[in-house]
Amino acid sequence: MTIVNKSRLALIAAGLGSMLAAGSASAEYRVTAFGDAIAYKALISMDVESAKSAFYTKDLTKLDFVAANNLCVTQILSKELSAAVATCNMALEKVDLDFELTVAMEKEAKASIYSNLAVAKAMSGDYTGASADLERALQLNGRDRNANVNYSQISANLDVADDIAQR
């Protein structure tokens, strides 16, 4: 494994710590940007326009999973939710293609990406899909703080949606 990949994954936990208001007025979701990758510094400082411009000249098909995840986060923050879902799915596919990752690193990366995917789905109103993605994230890494926070938020939204449907 290269040193770059190790340092990128070491910074998973140092992802976006700020809360992202989304979905309903009371819902707050957390997203994870990966360090040492395109737009990381802009995302940490919540400079969405700079993050978007960092990807402007990039061939998106050639992004590794770390950069694809950060693009997904950028799209979530820009409320480009259908694009974010597609990009998170692309990032998940690219994790499977990175043979330099250990099993533990792969699980941590996938958990963070599934959590980001869930946020994009929840913000789009797909709480059922978001819940399934978060369950997958927590199966992969039950200690992922952002996934745990997001699961609590989405569970609450599912309960509200169920109450409305029963009326």
Indicate the mean pLDDT: 83
For the terminal residues, how far apart are their CA atoms?
55 Å
- Give a quick account of the main beta sheet: strands, pairing sense, barrel closure: 2 strands, antiparallel
Give the helices and strands as they follow along the chain: HEEHHHHHHH
Shape: globular
Label the structural class. Answer: mainly alpha
Given as residue ranges, the uncertain stretches (5+ residues, pLDDT < 50) are: 1-26
Query: How is the largest sheet built, in terms of strand order?
Result: 1-2
Number of strands: 2
Q: Helix coverage percent of residues?
A: 55-70%
Rg, rounded, reads: 15 Å
In DSSP terms (H or I, runs of 4 or more residues), the helix count works out at 8
Short synopsis of the structure:
The chain is mainly alpha-helical. It contains eight helices and two strands.
